[in-house]
User: Fold this.
Amino acid sequence: MIVTASVLAVALIAAGAFGVSQFSESDSDEIETAADAEVIAPQVVAGAAGPPAATLDGLVEQLLVRVEAVPGDHVAWATLGIAYVQQARVVADPSLFPRAQAALEESLAVEPDDNFLAYAGRSVLAAGRHRFADAKTEAERGLEINSFNPILWGALSDAQLQLGEYDEAAASVDRMIELSPDTSSFSRASYIAELNGDVNEATTLMQQALDDAGSPTDRAFALTILGDLKFNAGEPGEALTLYNQARDAAPDDAAALYGKARAEAALGQNETALDHYAELVEASPEPSYLVAYGELLESLGRTEEAEQQYAVVDAVLALFEENGVENDAAPVLFLADHDEPERALREAERAIAVRPFIAMHDAHAWALYASGRYDDALEASEQALRLGTPNAQFHFHAGMIKLALGNEDGARVDLERALEINPFFDPLDVPIAQSALAELGPAT
Assistant:
């Protein structure tokens, strides 16, 4: 195995940077079909002086040396582009996307025909910018060159999911599993099972992903998703154990640290959770991490500190927009919850037009609710719940929308369902749901 294969894992998430999809390091295994040790710079393989290529930063530096020495190496250019996308994801810095785009364009300029890896990179980059129609197109172009490449099938499935093409996405994942039954493909199958309400199957498939994990990064990824499944089912203690195991495998994994902080807060370990949130946003100021940190502070009455985090959210969103990243659900929910309903609805309507995924339908519903358009909000909420996904926040939003419409029985059902799924789903929304249910009283 070439050195680059072991570090590109997570880069190949075609559903977008910043935590919107299932992915894993084992995606990188298939890169070896496009490149071998003779393609990558000898110093990368042999371990020359300078940062080790076994780290992402080291890989980027080694690839920069390679493309300067051999500018005609289209695989190295494509690999560099993918690595830049991964760097952007890890540190939540979309200013790296233009560098990724330039590297991928250079790869295609060198080899415009037989270059499926560049199209995989272009799909990943488009997804990182939340441009999922483009991500789908680029994955399909790569598959026209190499229809047996599982990376491209994974990229295609991720884009299809975000476009609301759920059956097509499942078929693409099935094809990916046929070609490469590994951590990457099983994790995608797990996510589809979860979306369709089958948490037991999702857990079984994710356990398969863990069993097949071929590296510490893969292991940390699988353990983190297993932790998420436990947390989302209202079991923060078991989730925390899994997040700690993930951190043991990969101490710098941001998603594992995020899960750990959420679980600690749910267990009442608030000061420890705040310390871990501070560590997290210092390393990776991703909007959903910042919002979660701020909302925990707000729930504890530390309003001034919460506002400091919310101010950073605005700055990060501006940076994303400057670098061509379309908003996703988390910023829309943030705006709707923080007295910017008009802006929330504007962003939601723009996003839902190009990304009709269930999470985006839920965010759209909440923006409509914040704007007082309750009938439209209910219709959007029904779209969010159409797959039967056991998501506490979706049901909370549905319950509050029904309450605003005067449907007390429907509101009670959804609010009770939210707390049944996960009584720790949000530090601010859980008390609202509990208060609303107390006012509603028992069903008659």
In short: DSSP finds 23 helices and no strands in the chain. Confidence is low (pLDDT under 50) at residues 1-53. Residues 193 and 201 are 6 Å apart (CA to CA). The two ends are 66 Å apart (CA to CA).
